[in-house]
Amino acid sequence: MNNTHRLHPCSYCDHNPDGIYNDYRTYPCPYSYDHYVPVDDDDDEMENSSRLMNNTPIVLKDYGPQPFVVNINEATKQNNNYRTGLWTGNNLQVTLMSIKVGDDIGLEVHPKIDQFIRIEDGQGIVKMGTNKDSLDFQANVYDDFAIMIPAGTWHNVINTGNKPLKVYSIYAPPQHPHGVVHVTKPAE
Q1: Residue 9 to residues 18, 19, 54, 114, 123, Cα–Cα distance (Å)
Q2: Whole-angstrom distance, CA of residue 12 vs CA of residue 3
Q3: CB 83 within 8 A of CB 180
Q4: E strands present in 41-185
Q5: pLDDT tens digits, residue range 63-76?
Q6: Is pTM, for the whole model, over 0.90?
Q7: H/E element, 24
Q8: Confidence class for position 130, pLDDT limits 50, 70, 90
Q9: Whole-angstrom Cα distance, residue 185 to residue 98?
Q10: Which of 34, 149, 155, 179 could lock onto 54 through a cystine, CB 3.0 to 4.6 A?
Q11: Who contacts 68 (Cβ-Cβ below 8 Å, separation ≥6)?
């Protein structure tokens, strides 16, 4: 199996970064997987290993609170729902969001929850403030930007681009029920 990411020196791959062939490879490259799905002892080993390959679409569902590894960039870009819960634990939750052109997340506040939002694709404007009528913080956001929202801060993210804004959000502690899926933006 090849290391398609080539972002690290890897003794598992067919070729290391210097282009030297690895005659001693006995294990597949652990860096070539986009996600890890826990293996059920009753499943066929070949079936499980095929789910780990980076050419398989990621099944978007809530994997929490089990251990889980995913290519978050690919999962976020694959999501077409307004909100999809990807992992919910006791103290943390990860959701994927797709915001339509010209739409927004919606002005909201989480009194006791810190929130992290990362933009994976698209562009927008984030507005924040201590009062919903006074959003005195504003910034343009693009691919690879991260937004940190302290508990008790009013905030909104508006899609200003010409394609869906793809983001993932981390809540600590969780904000939504385990397995949450909102195909479209909930009515306010």
Answers
A1: 9, 11, 19, 36, 33
A2: 8
A3: yes
A4: 69-70, 83-88, 93-99, 114-121, 124-129, 137-141, 146-149, 154-159, 165-172, 181-182
A5: 999 999 999 999 99
A6: no
A7: none
A8: very high
A9: 9
A10: 34
A11: 35, 36, 37, 38, 87
Alpha carbon distance 36, 140 (integer Å): 34
Task: Find the angle CA(57)-CA(42)-CA(71) to the nearest 5 degrees.
Answer: 25
Encoded tokens for 83: 């909100």
DSSP category for residue 63: -
Residues 179, 62 contacting (CB under 8 angstroms): yes
Both tokens assigned to 132: 């919903």
Decide: 71 and 36 in contact? Cβ < 8 Å: no
Number of Cβ within 10 Å of residue 19's Cβ equals 6
Contact by Cβ (8 Å): 73, 54: no
Element holding 163 (H helix, E strand): none
Q: Which amino acid is present at 98?
A: S
In angstroms, the CA 162 to CA 106 distance is 19
